[in-house]
Amino acid sequence: MCPASRSSFETFGGAALRGVVVADPAADHRLVQLAKRSAVSELHLRRMFADQTGTTPARFIERIRVEAAREQLESHDANRDSRGVLRP
Description:
Distance between the termini: 58 Å
CATH topology: Arc Repressor Mutant, subunit A
Number of strands: 0
CATH superfamily: Homeodomain-like
Order of helices and strands: HHHHH
Strand content: under 5%
Shape: elongated
Radius of gyration: 17 Å
CATH class: Mainly Alpha
């Protein structure tokens, strides 16, 4: 791996890339676009992401989206009484 690719990924691809997904789970986070953002190939992104997180980018994005949906449902439920009627 060339040093430029490693530093590009570490600069954007590590925590920052995960932060982009967490900040907007519904956005278009296809691998090709994440790789372009990170200035690395798709294969390299998958490998580096898995090395750093222990999971694939797709599984990470899915997990974040499920967590975001759960939070929305829970906050929606918190605004209802036991009969399902919205509280004022």
